[in-house]
Amino acid sequence: MDQVLKLGIPAGSLQEATAELFRKAGYKLTFASRSYYPVIDDPEIQCTLIRAQEMARYVQDGSLDCGLTGHDWVLENDAVVVELAELIFSKVSRRPVRWVLAVPNDSPIQSVHDLQGKRIATEVVNLTKKWLASHGVTAMVEFSWGATEVKPPTLADAIVEVTETGSSLKANNLRIVCDLLESTTRFIANPAAAADVWKRQKMDDLILMLRGAMAAEGKVGLMMNVPKAMLPAVLAVLPSSKPTISSLSDPEWVDVLVILAEDVVRRIIPRLKRAGASGIVEFPLTKIID
């Protein structure tokens, strides 16, 4: 039987971001309506759509060889898995997500110690209990099935909720008291799968391509012809980087190739032109592999 890597794809808020990352990495990931088995254009990978909250448990027990999920959910499940890579991407930004303690704007709660005997609603019950215990605080921690922001003050005194921008909390008249945890997406593996030579190589190759796609985000390539006499002036315009300089058929000219942040290109192309560069070509990048 041909070898297959069983890969978990996170359902929910990370689903489309994951599909886009895979596309940039060179994989076509297709979600069929009402199917929990996305199709990927690699016959050696079998995908299963699983909620990120549950991913670590299924990877731990070997139902999946590997998967993408948040570090927060690995901790919440006390899962014994191998974290092979950190992949900082989310549904809104490239920033880590934060689990925060939030209360109504007019709440007297100002610190973790004010939570003694209070009621807290959250999806991360285990994380919250451990955090409270580390501060010597005892409180009632209840699992929230969703819409956690609307529960204070009637159904809970406080919540522990995940946020990227804080906008949803503000919209519900909540203020952040403190942070519990920052979390990013991780590529996790079952320990036995990580020890398998073929599966580990397959996972390492996949991670390499995913990281390459992430490294290329927000960057473009610039290629230009420069007279040798003007090369110092052109290089002085470029931000600190490592341009590639190649000889051309005309010995008095060179080709300069550089990778730059996309948002600086519009400012420096006119300056490069004035410094003596010509034939300037901007091109998109899909992957950068270091």
How would you characterize this protein structure?
By secondary structure, the chain is α/β, with parallel strands linked by helices. It has three domains: 5-93 and 185-216, 3-Layer(aba) Sandwich (D-Maltodextrin-Binding Protein, domain 2), CATH 3.40.190.10; 97-182, D-Maltodextrin-Binding Protein, domain 2 (3-Layer(aba) Sandwich); 219-284, 2-Layer Sandwich (Alpha-Beta Plaits). It contains nine helices and 16 strands. The strands form four sheets. It has a five-stranded mixed β-sheet, with helices on both faces. The protein has a five-stranded mixed β-sheet with strand order 9-8-10-7-11. The protein has a four-stranded antiparallel β-sheet with strand order 14-15-13-16.
Q: Major sheet, described briefly?
A: 5 strands, mixed
CATH superfamily annotation of the largest domain: Periplasmic binding protein-like II
Q: What gross morphology would you assign?
A: globular
Range of helix content: 25-40%
Number of domains: 3
Bin the strand percentage.
25-35%
N- and C-termini, Cα separation: 35 Å
Number of helices: 9
Count the beta strands.
16
**Which class of the largest domain in CATH terms?**
Alpha Beta
Going by CATH, the architecture of the largest domain would be 3-Layer(aba) Sandwich
Short synopsis of the structure:
With 290 residues, the protein is an alpha/beta fold.
